[in-house]
Design brief:
With 324 residues, this protein is α/β, with parallel strands linked by helices. The protein has one domain: Glycosidases (TIM Barrel, Alpha-Beta Barrel). It is 35% helix and 19% strand. The strands form four sheets. An eight-stranded parallel barrel has the order 5-6-7-8-11-12-13-14. It has a two-stranded antiparallel sheet with strand order 1-2. Strands 3-4 form a two-stranded antiparallel sheet. Helix 2 runs parallel beside helix 3 and helix 4 runs parallel beside helix 5.
């Protein structure tokens, strides 16, 4: 087992406080059975913004903003080009795997948790690239098994075919999950696995009516505050009432396209709901892309030691929500 740092700068790290994580009822709990809420940041597409997966950047986020989890968003496919895992070549896949393992190791050295995200989006149905997903997890899980700080996310945002209007159902996501989860668990049965839900991971209510029959499973809820309001919060409330363990592995303070205006009122309502229910959350995204959801300004080329002048308005909200 790889060493995860327990103490840094004279205080316990997130892993030092909590150790091994698991799921109990609707909650994530630590090695002592205490409820845990993680707060952190997601990378953008690792193929497009690999430079942020570095010690300088992650250290700055942990030390300055109290981040306790980093999410490594590896797109399984992309709309144009060939820089997703499934639509790239073997050399590109090797690069992505090395980048992920580097990110996991940096998180271990900082004593925080790390989500490895098979980022379904443009391949709207996770079953489209299921063979590649299985290949990926078979290759990486023997290595990830050595890292007790890792959480596995198997399908970011199942969604819809815009050409036909067909929306992926929970039954189809379950087919994917029931093929992929046993592959992971055969290698490593110790980790939390997070499963996406229909409609860009908003329909946790549907998942709660027929949850998967495995231990240590959580279900993804995503929201963008200026688009997703009471209707999606009601879905969360329904699922929580049925004891479904929820993990917000991605959220934004703007609109569903990751852009638009920042809605502080709706963001605050969402964060209160998550904090009241000890639901872990991860803000989108760690990049300097010219869009609202990026936390780094487009003209900032720094990879660490960020100041308020380097942060976008979303970045300033990130700072607030990490420290609540």
């Amino acid at each position: 087992m790889k060493t995860i740092t327990l103490d840094r700068n004279g205080k316990k790290t997130a892993y030092g406080q909590h150790g091994h994580l698991s799921v109990s009822g609707k909650n994530m709990v630590d090695a002592n059975g205490n409820i845990v809420q993680l707060r952190g940041i997601s990378t953008h597409n690792l193929s497009s913004y690999p430079e942020y997966v570095c010690n300088e950047c992650f250290t700055s986020l942990v030390d300055n903003y109290d981040v306790t989890v980093m999410r490594l968003a590896m797109y399984s496919a992309v709309a144009d080009g060939d820089n997703g895992y499934s639509d790239g070549d073997d050399a590109h896949r090797d690069e992505l795997e090395k980048l992920i393992l580097s990110g996991v190791q940096i998180c271990a050295e900082l004593g925080i948790y790390c989500i490895v995200d098979w980022h379904i989006l443009f391949d709207y149905d996770p079953n489209m690239n299921i063979d590649m997903a299985i290949k990926f997890w078979k290759k990486l899980c023997p290595i990830l098994k050595e890292y007790d700080n890792v959480i596995i996310e198997i399908c970011n945002e199942p969604n819809m075919n815009f050409d036909t209007g067909y929306k992926v159902t929970w039954d189809e996501i379950s087919v994917f999950a029931n093929k992929v989860i046993p592959v992971i668990k055969e290698i490593d049965d110790s980790k939390i696995i997070v499963v996406g839900t229909p409609t860009w991971s908003q329909d946790v209510d549907i998942a709660s009516n027929s949850p998967l029959k495995y231990d240590n499973i959580m279900y993804t809820l995503h929201f963008y505050a200026d688009t997703h309001r009471d209707e999606v919060r009601d879905k969360a409330g329904y699922a929580l009432a049925k004891n479904l363990p929820i993990f917000v592995t991605e959220f934004g303070v703007g609109d569903a396209l990751g852009d638009g205006i920042i809605n502080d009122e709706q963001s605050d309502i969402w964060i209160k709901l998550l904090n009241d229910n000890s639901i872990s959350y991860v803000i989108w995204n760690l990049s300097n892309k010219a869009e609202t959801s990026s936390i780094i300004k487009a003209d900032c080329t720094k990879l660490g030691a960020f100041t308020d002048d380097d942060l976008t308005e979303s970045g300033k909200r990130m700072k607030k929500y990490m420290n609540i």
